[in-house]
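Task 17 of the worksheet. Students: predict the tertiary structure of the chain below and write it out as structure tokens. Keep your answer in the requested format; marks are given for formatting as well as content.
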Amino acid sequence: MHHPEALEPIVAFVRGIGMGVEYGEGARDGFLPGVNIHAGVIHIDPDTLLAPGDILHEAGHIIVVPRRYWPRLGRDLQADIEALVAEQSGPGQTPDPLLVRAAQQGEQMATAWSYAVVHHLGLPQECLFFPGSYRVGPYEGVHPFQAWIEQGSHFGPLFLAQADMTGFSGLFAYMGSNGLPAFPQMSRWTVD
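Model answer:
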């Protein structure tokens, strides 16, 4: 496992924002090795987990969804979120705008949120951005996704700012001010 020292601080943080985390066999057959989601609860197996940052990325997909829907989220978070939007779509219906945002922008938001958590906890970004993470093959120096966020051109911080979870930053700072400290500082860790 890359950066095993980050496991317990990350688990404590995720539990601290009100998300369930359990160790054991429930982690099998997850979207990522060593981590799986059952009814909004993150299950982990430290023996097969590639890095603790994978826990954060999965949690990042969950936190952009209103809490009332967390019990409906499982292994394939994107498919589950899209199914919730579909249930609320139809003649005379308007789907929850927070669900629509999670379906459309969740991947970018989860990546930026994870970066902000690692920054907040004072952990090395390499526990999130490691060789092979985010389907990035060999590279030299800083992981390309980490560089993208740090250069201020990743859309995740913009989407988090539009959700009033952080302030506008990077290339998107010109888009206005919501009165919040700029990313990676977070004013809240969940969408609700």
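Marker's comment: The beta strands are 21-23, 35-38, 41-44. The two ends are 32 Å apart (CA to CA).
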